[in-house]
Amino acid sequence: MRFHAGHHCFEFPRPPLLMGIVNVTPDSFSDGGQHLATASAIEHGLRLVAGGADLLDIGGESTRPGATPVSGADELRRVLPVIEGLVSRTGIPVSIDTRKPAVAAAALAAGAVIVNDIEANREDDAMWRVVAEHQAGYVCMHMQGTPQTMQSEPRYADVAREVREFFKDRLVRLERAGVRAGQVVLDVGIGFGKTLEHNLELLGALCSFQTLDRPLLLGVSRKSFIERLTGAPVEDRLAGSLAATVLAVRDGVQFVRTHDVAATRQALQVAAAILERQSACGTR
Ligand code: HH2
Residue 283: is its pLDDT beyond 80? Predict the structure, then answer.
């Protein structure tokens, strides 16, 4: 299986890829306001690369539940200089985390090669045509509702089955818009229109998404389901994030979106060394 994003190509199976998060926002749920200045955001991105990031995801609008939407102009003012700075200083693929086709197009023109789309549940194909035109990679994330409405009353009869059906439908629509399956990564969207129980069911069912034959991306980093389970405040959720990540990678996740790249890399290296031996002695 391959994933194409601009001139980058990743071949699987391979060790998991770490996508470091650079939030150029005043209000992100875990690091809002920390990297709002361009220089500070670029420095942060470079630190993530030094810590072992394989990709960087740049976002200029918080998607936490109930966050205030940002105009396209403001979003571009935040992200473009950071994308340009990080593309020119690192050789690694940069992704733009946006819901707006115009922001995606400008980011891709500035050197980003992946669109991370939390609003892949949209009806129109404007975003997909931008992705097709730039031959970009595309993260197709599942969300029920919008960031403004998603946590009001999420409902599913069978969350894993419904998310799988959503992905099948999107792969068809993407193909119709000119985006080939090889450009697509799937993400179940932990915390996006899901209760604690929905999140846990999805995390427990990750294996079942392998039948779709596309790489899986997962974002659990510092998320509130960890607080619901353990009481840990946002600044103290690394251990819970790592536990979920290690199990998810064991179950086939290939891309891990994380605020804590170095710690995640260390946890995955140790887990991989042990899992390799377990399969060798037939215990799994
Ligand atoms: N989670 C967040 C944002 N973007 N994209 C994908 N593909 N998957 C995710 O799970 C995901 C995402 C939320 O995290 P963060 O960016 O740290 O917070 P905020 O949206 O408040 O900026």
Answer: no
Query: Which of 28, 31, 63, 221 maximizes ligand 1 atoms within 8 Å of its Cβ, making it the mutation to test the pocket?
Result: 63
**95-134 per-position pLDDT tens digit:** 999 999 999 999 999 999 999 999 999 999 999 999 999 9
Tokens 């799988």 correspond to what residue?
Answer: 164
pLDDT at 282: 55
Measured in Å, residue 63 CA sits from the centre of ligand 1 at 6
Q: What is the mean pLDDT of residues 12-32?
A: 92
Residues enclosing ligand 1, CB less than 6 A? 21, 23, 25, 28-30, 59, 62-64, 97, 116, 118, 139, 141, 187, 189-190, 217, 219, 257
Separation of alpha carbons 140 and 118, rounded Å: 7
> b/e string for 36-61 if b means 16 or more Cβ within 10 A?
bebeebbebbbebbebbbbbbbbbbb
As a dihedral over the C-alpha atoms of residue 106, residue 109, residue 111, residue 116, rounded to 10 degrees, the angle is 50
The structure's pTM equals 0.95
Q: Which residue has the tokens 């260390």?
A: 266
